[in-house]
Amino acid sequence: MKKNLLMWDESIFQDMEVFEFDFVPGQFDFRDTQEQELAFQIQPGLRGGRPLNTICRGLPGTGKTTSIRKLFTEIEEHTRKIVPVHINCQIDNTKFAIFSQIFRRLSGHLPPGSGTSFKQVFDAVCRLLVKDETVLLVCLDDANYLMYENEINKVLYTLLRAHESCPGTKIGVITVISDMSVDLMKTVDARVASVFQPTDIYFPPYDEDEIKEILRQRVKQGFYPGVISEAMLDLITEQTLKGGDLRVGIDLLKRAGLNAERDARRSVERDDVCRAYEVSKYLHLTATIRALRPEERALLRVIAECSREKKEMAAGTVHEAVKASSMKLGYTRFYEMVTKLDSMRLVNLHYREGRGRTRLITLRYDPERVIEEIDSC
After folding, report:
1. Tens digits of residue pLDDT in 277-325
2. Are strands 312-314 and 357-363 parallel, antiparallel or unpaired?
3. Paired strand residues for 54
4. What is the full DSSP assignment across 159-179?
5. Pairing state of beta strands 171-177 and 54-57?
6. What is the pTM of this model?
7. 135: three-class secondary structure by DSSP
8. How remote is the C-alpha of 91 from its chain's centroid?
């Protein structure tokens, strides 16, 4: 009996890093076609030219970011001609913030926090690129987050037309779109579209067998043998399919392992997985709420509070509740923010046909859970 108990200085994890979302696996299956297309897009940069622009499109958890991180790692290992910069647009979602991150990658430090204009940062980035004779490759991950305030046009225009104000500057852009309802080329204006001209690379959802195989590889790398049985792997695969995102499965493995360790067991059991799923299934909710601005969180809280009384609400009713709160929002701004929450899959915004077209808002998650997540930010 004692043999089956984990001692205080033992672990069932062989390598915990394997379960981090930014981990880039050595073996990355089922995305060969997309990786080859990405490699083709950057080839001109290896010969001193401008990389071809790309849109990577696919639902969350379909390997877009991992494919790009893998490509960027290979570039950094083999050449100094191209400088790849990965931008998380959920966090850096203004032109200044994005160019500050590019400047940091090129110079090793961020620009001064105050008293620095955007033009100073932009000029410094161009000077560094020209001086070092390097080509910049920027990945705008979750670029749909740049659309709500129309930052996408400002960012792409500045990147793609940098050579006009700073001759010799060469920049290529990879945009990553996880919202399949977004058509980026219909969003950008004509000035941007004329120089952007991207190639589309589609990342289809993983099927059940692919998910199971990817999770199996993580299990092999992350746990000692015998920790996850075939039956538990089947259960985690099933829960991952239900969650609709491979990251749910990777997070499930980690949390289920931690649950087993807390109970000093050497293997994961069904109850460990079921308890872990109660947290992992809210991964999208947690990450998205953290990316919201304070006034957007405040609006989401009002919607959640209204949802306690009624699941489906008229937009006008919610706006009245907003006006009665400490928020002072005109209807136009209110509706812009609700549209953003809809595109971020936090609420559903739809119409009810009747005497007129009534806009209806429905919260996608349990209101108490949403309020709890907002309070923890």
Report:
1. 999 989 888 888 887 888 999 999 999 999 999 999 999 999 999 999 8
2. antiparallel
3. 174, 199
4. HHTHHHHSTT--EEEEEEE--
5. parallel
6. 0.85
7. strand
8. 10
